[in-house]
Amino acid sequence: MSIYDLLKKDHKEVSKLLDEVAATGDDAGKTRAKKFAQIKEKLTAHSDAEDEVFYSVLVEHDETRDIVLEGREEHALIVEFLEELSQMPPGSEDWTAKFKVFKENVEHHVEEEEGEMFKNARKVLSDAEAKDIGEQFREQKQSLLA
Ligand SMILES: [Fe+2]
Ligand SMILES: [Fe+2]
Question: Spelled out in words, what is the top-level CATH class assigned to the domain 3-145?
Answer without folding.
Answer: mainly alpha
